[in-house]
Design a protein that fits this description.
- The chain is mainly α.
- It has 2 domains: about 170 residues, Orthogonal Bundle (Cytochrome Bc1 Complex, Chain D, domain 2); about 140 residues, Orthogonal Bundle (Cytochrome Bc1 Complex, Chain D, domain 2).
- The chain contains 15 helices and 2 strands.
- Strands 1-2 form a two-stranded antiparallel ribbon.
- Helix 13 packs across helix 14.
- The chain is globular and about 60 Å long.
- The structure holds heme C (2 copies).
- One heme C binds next to helix 5 and helix 6.
Length: about 350
């Protein structure tokens, strides 16, 4: 599947990819100097900047060394939950690409949610957060789990009071934002900064497709890539780069819809059954799959796409047309597709100490 872009990138090579995804400096956590917090740039492979553009950052919340370090700490901070037992990382587990290996997450009181916790990968480029796209910024998104009655079950005044009572946190907020007065806006800004650093562009697929390493994929995986871009039409929605076009689409999992998805947010009939196209980066480790975690394995997922798409589903996406009535993938084709999906795993991302609990 050679692309014009790839030819231009052959020179980028593995040496540059080895530098990819490493942050420029380790984050100190003490108060910043008189010049304020230290700007931070996440190093990205040249092809990422070429195809996705520089990492978007809100003007009022640029990445800083101190802000990211604080966000990392807050992401792993159980004080955010009502009874001090749960952090963001409880449901967003690094080894699972910051998704939840359980089908449904449990709140601090044991209440069961209805959707599978999503991976956190490459979201700096995402403008639609949650399965139903109800949030449009990482800052906005980070407000919600803290007060969600089936998640952290807390209130923001309690969170702020707890952090404000902790001198080490007050110092860290001053270092990151120049103020000793903590509020919820600063908490979500720090968390969002940390999340923006969670980029994963170091998979075998990247080495092959963007790095020009022809040996990085084997024949079975290449056959899977041909299905992905050819008869399976997967690439129409799971576009190369982020492996998601960041849109909300109906891929025909239920007819009639059980969960209204975007339709529950907009109230529009034409949005019913539309869900965020999730990234496929690190997909091998981020199961179970779909908004409700209905499929345990990637084999189950490709079995669905090859022959079990609900044909008459209202709002079914046009890009699904080739898959409707296509007939089943053969056993061999399913194995090939799964083999290709497995090439999106980025071990360095899943084990990067910069993302673990500080
Ligand atoms: C109890 C489990 C749980 C906790 C705790 C939790 N989340 Fe989530 N998270 C989920 C679930 C479930 C979803 C999907 C919910 C939906 O789509 O309605 C989700 C979705 C997200 C998304 C959207 C990803 C995307 O691609 O759109 C982000 C980002 C996120 N969570 C970050 C956080 C942060 C930051 C925290 C801590 C402040 C946190 N989560 C705490 C379960 C949890
Ligand atoms: C019309 C756009 C579209 C096409 C074409 C498409 N997908 Fe999807 N894909 C989606 C959407 C939307 C979801 C989420 C649906 C849900 O949660 O119910 C999804 C979910 C998935 C998931 C689960 C991801 C997760 O984190 O749970 C996998 C794996 C997947 N698709 C692989 C594929 C493969 C392989 C193909 C080609 C055979 C394909 N997709 C074709 C839109 C599409």
């Amino acid at each position: 599947m050679p692309s014009p872009r790839r030819i231009g990138l052959l020179l980028a090579g593995t040496a540059l990819l080895a530098l990819a995804c490493k942050k420029d400096e380790e984050a100190p956590e003490g108060p910043s100097g008189p010049d304020g917090p230290t700007p931070l740039t996440v190093s990205l492979p040249p092809w990422v900047i070429d195809s996705l553009g520089p990492m978007p950052q809100p003007a009022d919340n640029p990445l800083t060394v101190e802000g990211v370090a604080l966000g990392r700490r807050l992401f792993h901070e159980a004080m955010l939950s009502d009874n001090g037992t749960m952090s963001c990382a409880t449901c967003h587990v690094q080894a699972n690409a910051f998704s939840d290996p359980r089908r449904f997450s449990l709140g601090t009181n044991g209440a069961v949610g209805t959707r599978n916790a999503m991976a956190i990968v490459g979201l700096a480029w995402s403008q639609n957060l949650f399965w139903d796209g109800r949030r449009h910024t990482l800052e906005g998104q980070a407000h919600d789990p803290v007060t969600n009655p089936i998640e952290m079950r807390n209130t923001w005044p309690v969170v702020v009071q707890r952090l404000q009572a902790d001198d080490a946190y007050v110092d860290r907020f001053e270092a990151a934002f120049g103020t000793r007065t903590i509020d919820s806006t600063l908490v979500v800004k720090a968390i969002a900064q940390f999340e923006r650093t969670m980029v994963s562009f170091g998979s075998r697929f990247d080495r092959y497709y963007y790095g020009g390493d022809a040996t990085a994929l084997d024949a079975q995986e290449l056959a899977g890539m041909a299905l992905f871009t050819g008869m399976g039409n997967c690439v129409a929605c799971h576009t190369f780069g982020l492996m998601s076009d960041d849109q909300l689409r109906n891929n025909g999992v239920d007819n009639p819809a059980v969960d209204p998805g975007l339709g529950g947010v907009t109230g529009q009939p034409q949005d019913i059954g539309k869900f965020k196209v999730p990234t496929l980066r690190n997909i091998a480790v981020s199961g179970p799959y779909m908004h409700d975690g209905r499929f345990n394995t990637l084999f189950d997922v490709v079995t669905f796409y090859g022959g079990h798409v609900q044909a008459g589903t209202p709002n079914l996406d046009h890009a699904m047309t080739p898959l409707v009535g296509m007939g089943n993938f053969t056993g061999e084709q399913k194995e090939q597709l799964v083999a290709f999906l497995n090439t999106f795993t980025d071990e360095a991302f899943l084990t990067d100490p910069a993302f673990s609990a500080p």
